[in-house]
Amino acid sequence: MIVSMMFYTGDLFQPRNPLFWLVSFLMLILSINWLFKGLVHVLCSSWYDLWFLRRKVQARQARASVAYEPMVSVIIPAYNEEVGLVATLKTVAASTYTNMEVIVINDGSTDGTEQEMRGFLQKYHLANNNRPAIPVRYRYQQNTGKGAALNTGIRMAHGEIIVTFDADCAVHKDCVKQLVTAFVDPAVMAVSGNIRIGNMSSILGIVQSLEYAFGFFLKKAEAVFGTVFVIGGACAAYRREVFFKIGEFDKRFLTEDMEMSFRIQQAGMRVVYAPRAVVHTEGPSTLRGLIKQRRRWKRGRIETILRYTSEIFNKKSKNKLFFWLAVPSVYLDDIVMVFSVVLTLLLYCYSVEIVNYSFLYALMAMSSFIYLLVFLCDDHDRNIKSMIIVPLVYVLLHLSTVIEVYALMTAYWTVITRRNVGWQKLQRRGVTFGMTYSIYAPRTSVASPVQQAPYVTPHATVTPSAQSYPYAQPQPPLYVGDFLSPKGRKARLSQPERRGKGCLISALVVLLLLIILGGIPISTAQILLAFGSTLSTQSPLSTQTGYIGTSDRINILVMGYGGSGHDGAYLTDALVVMSLLPQSHHTTLISVPRDLWIQYPPNSGNYHKINTVYPIASNNHADPVAGGDAAAQMVSRVTGLDVKYWMTINFAGFREVINVIGGVDVNVPDAFTANYPKNDDPNIDASWKKVHFAKGLQHMDGETAIEYARARHVIDNLAEGTDFARSARQQLIMKAAFTKLKDWHTWLRFFHALDALKDTIYTNLSLADLAQFAMKMDLNNAHRVGLSFSNVLNDKTSSDGQDILLPKNGDWNAIKTYIKQSLYK
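-> structure tokens emitted (825 positions)
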């Protein structure tokens, strides 16, 4: 909501723009959804560890020190999983929880799954002397679907807890232990594990990992509210009695795990989330495969919701929060998802049109902060790899959103057109995510009756009475979700609390850092873009020079004028051409005397000093673009250089810029004294003052620098009173100012300098091009060229009595030749 409110402040608020109201409407929908669902879920997810700790403490007190290590049956359905099945079995068999059995159901595979499985069983059987700590049982059946395969496994199972894994998963060694820990609370009937993407070597893999990370972060809030939407089949655990009470998996559904989740919620059973029960699954590695997977998920979700429509807003519902709020909000989520794509496109168009990108930067910062919070609040994601992804989150989420919207729309289309959506078979490459365990080494354990069972067996019929088994305990007992001695349990008790508090503190620290560090670049970018829009005729990030990627010479005419309040306010007292060779950084500064007598407009028969071209063409600064273009064209005719770009400098503003940056250091080559007006406007004060400049390095403030650059009425050193000397002094001041602006010490005064520069300079170069030009200029070694009496000019007097300058012998080509020969090659 804070980000949304920002949209209605400053330059972003433009009610006369038709795009503004369309963007506002979409913003309202997104904000409502975020306020009533997203924000609540994010906040509650951050507190999940403390909530879960409280429930475990209550369970401890209820069960005291009763040992709790139930028999667990792990069921792995497999169809054409020759690549990943054995790897999955290895990680499961290496589990730290050993009071369990593993049941593999081959659902009619047509590849080498059968051979891979039997080869594994033979090695596993021999390596453990026919008495493995964790027995593995195998069953082949005709292909009838994943739901039917799971049901077969349930009928074969002997365990009190039923755990399901997919055949393409790498299971963390503590995963089963963490799933079992949640069942110390007798009210818990099902547990959802933490599923992550294991193949993150591609952009698609990273995008899926972000989706999973955020989705399972929000599952913490779902567990707090008792509204877990889906217990993912890749890592799920159920009490055996669940299937006695509500039945087995319904094989008619594409997403049998979601349908089972709805049935559990319908029965009013409690479902929790175990964030430390981690498995890594292999996500689709192609865009086509990912779209097909998401389409199947969304079609399955639609079918499931339609199946339980009667429960929505039903007064007799046993879980009103789920069926009255969570399920209906899915439709709002779908609408918001579609609108978010439209909103994103409109926001980009709107931002470009008004040349203000602050709102987009705010969205980027908000997205990065949320995912940083997600990563910090999860033990698995709290690593440097996740932190590296954070700055890219906003961009990657665009791809994720487009895929999800496309899959959503096609899923609804298949429902409308009554088209079937089947299981897609992905091209598996296998994933272990760095978890490799040696499971062929013999283990010392006490064999249970289940461990004596043959490895390939027909299924067993399960009856309700078969819920308690007198199995021997092969490992030391578990004390109410803990695995330590009583002394260790006491120390362990506070660890989740510390983690919860640490998560909260980390989140607050990160928020503070984002406000400080993230706000600086966002504000800086906004100020820079606004500054670039003010000082230039071009968009700030556009380019007329290919961002100075050319090897050709680039010429910029820099013109300085006194500004309002001066006599002849817009006469360009300073005319300097900055000529740059980008590849070598060679810079030439060419001073064009203000009194040069030219014909303007060309071929008109009217003659003026060259410093009058700008005020005439711009109508005294009313149209600075016309004035700049005309002056650049005239200087091109005089010098023979291709001068396309220009910049005007208001000396009154330039004075303020120099003051803001702390003054400039100028090496004065010759001392002189001159008379100078006390005030720029003679109507205020027409008197004069004496100014003196000593030879050597001088530190000058803004007023002193302008006096040094513009002094004409020299008393003692008459050579300094010429226009040629003034041009040379102006070059020195400009060089000193540019050097100071590039110095990192000046960056502390950066924003004040921008405010001053905004009213000082104007150019037909974009901010991006101007910055590149400034970075490539080498003013310290610049070559200076001045047109003077000593080379190509003579002084004359015009017919109306003005002191003017003309080329010797009236040869304008001599000026062009001299400049061409004098350029820094």
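Residues 1-16, 432-507 have pLDDT under 50 and may be disordered.
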